[in-house]
Amino acid sequence: MKALFFLYEGYVDWEISPLSYMLNISGVEVETVALCEEVTHKGNFRVKADMGIEACDPADYEILIIPGGEPAPFDKEERLLNLIKSFDEQGKIIAAICGGPTFLAAADVLRERKYSTSIDDDPEYFSYFNEDNMSESDVTVSENIITAEGNAYIEFAIAVGKVLNIFEDREDELETVLFFKNQLRG
Q1: Phi and psi torsions of 51, nearest 5°
Q2: Are 183 and 175 in contact (CB under 8 A)?
Q3: Model pTM greater than 0.70?
Q4: Of 8, 20, 120, which is closest to residue 68 (Cα–Cα)?
Q5: Are the C-beta atoms of residues 70 and 99 closer than 8 Å to each other?
């Protein structure tokens, strides 16, 4: 199984770090794609992407994962919007957290699907979203789309893991939650 993370200038690294870790220890091959060779995330580390967006073939992946961050100016980037549309057209899983669902809305893949996001009242992006479909849940799974509010990054990672069937059983899933919530002491 292969997962693709879209990285962009200013993405919020901690919103996808637990998920990336879970996928890696589960044997899921993780690759990164970006609009340019290197990006700097919110933690101010420079990261080199595995490939440029032009080299990416959605048929090679089971899932596209998009972290949060400031959507502009990438919400108008046709190469990214076309990548998202291609994943959706192929029925591939798309997971986005915090500001990431803005890209899904801009690509018009949310349509009548329920969604969660942390960018729900910003007038710059409001026109992308159908307010009637906004979920009150921290994480929402709707067909092949998984969305989450930014502070629900552990819950987001667990939801993605469940959809990808990376947990051995319910006990494995709960142990993972307890690990990330620092509840396994003693």
Answers
A1: -155, 160
A2: no
A3: yes
A4: 8
A5: yes
Which residue positions in the chain have pLDDT lower than 50? none
Greatest alpha-carbon pair distance for the chain in Å reads: 51
Q: Give residue-wise pLDDT tens across range 33-60.
A: 999 999 999 999 999 999 999 999 999 9
Number of Cβ within a 10 Å radius of residue 93: 20
DSSP assignment of the chain, as one string?
Answer: -EEEEEE-TT--GGGTHHHHHHHHHTT-EEEEEESSSEEE-TT--EEE-SEEGGG--GGG-SEEEE--S--TTGGG-HHHHHHHHHHHHTT-EEEEETTTHHHHHHTT--TT--B--S-SS-TTTGGGS-GGGB-SSSEEEETTEEEE-GGGHHHHHHHHHHHTT-SSSHHHHHHHHHHHTT----
Spatial CA neighbour of 65 closest among 152, 5, 2, 146: 5
The pairing of strands 139-142 and 29-34 is unpaired
> Rounded to the nearest 10 degrees, what angle do helices 153-163 and 170-180 cross at?
160
Distance separating alpha carbons of residues 180 and 184, to the nearest angstrom: 9
What sign does the dihedral 41-100-90-25 (CA atoms) show? positive
Which residue type is seen at 99?
G
Indicate the length of the chain as a whole number.
186
